[in-house]
Amino acid sequence: MLETFEYFLLAATIVAALALICDGAYLTSRKHQVRKQPKVLAGAAGSGIVDGEDNPGPIQPASRSPKTKGLAWYGSAFTIVAFLLVTVYLIGRMSLTGHGPFANQHEFAVSFTWGILGAYLFFLWRYRIRMLSLVVMPVVLGLMIYAQSLDTGIEPLVPALQNNLLLTLHVSTAILAYGAACVSFGGAVLYLAHKPLSKKIRRMPSADLFDEIGYKAAVFTFPMLTIMILLGALWADTAWGRYWGWDPKETAAFVTWLLYGAYLHARVVRDWRGKRAAWLLIAGFVAVLFAYFGNHFFGGLHSYG
């Protein structure tokens, strides 16, 4: 039965790759570059843009208009299908294990991709910025390929993971935080790459829009990281008899929390924007990846996941 569900994960990888190809082809196509600015009806409440790539001006909510089945449509459709396939795989694995899919590196890698895809789809719907795909989807594909390279077998939970409620809540908040962090990373990378990319893609969104997306995603990431750490402390007390022990994964999570907290403080209090803020978001996501992969190198009590 597990092998059957693994086909869903393989299919999700293929479909995600197709989504990236469609988005890349759409963004670099001649048709996209010369497309005229969509008209906005005067006086329409909440009127905005059809696609963020077509509006380098102020940030506005996107209006809903008839969709055309071009490369952009297929890029979105493939991304949604990939998200649904990963969801089916995770639900299927949960039905076989009897607990959330968070017990080992394979399960969390797949859950990580689910969080990233969900966050990306939300920001795609909210801002119509398809260019995020150029940064976010390669991360998704890398995690999917990594997950499939690991042992996918189902093993009994180690004693520390047998508090099912705290395990599910703790890791669920991590998935949501890490997914949003990847989107903020995408916004930061595209902000820094705005000038060279604008030479290849004529109707680039404004750099300020990428800066704003990075900020909005970080606003969600930070409280999720806070809840993750608090729940992790409760879990640690139940599993190991102490709330905090400076385990390598705990320390990495704390450093990640500090980086996103520093970014939000600098943004709100010091009005940090532009390159300094973008690099801070990139450092934050590097810390996220270190928190996830670091236990491979430093061991510790989290070495099982």
TrEMBL record:
Q: Which Pfam families match?
A: Cytochrom_C_asm
Query: What topology does the record note for this protein and the membrane?
Result: Multi-pass membrane protein
| Biological process terms in GO annotation | cytochrome complex assembly
Q: Which NCBIfam families match?
A: cytochr_II_ccsB
State where it is primarily located: membrane
Q: Which GO terms describe its cellular component?
A: plasma membrane
InterPro entries, per database record: Cyt_c_assembly, Cyt_c_biogenesis_CcsA, Cyt_c_biogenesis_CcsA/CcmC
UniProt-annotated location(s): Membrane
Q: Which organism is it from?
A: Flaviflexus ciconiae
Residue span, Cytochrome c assembly protein domain: 111-302
Q: What is this protein called?
A: C-type cytochrome biogenesis protein CcsB
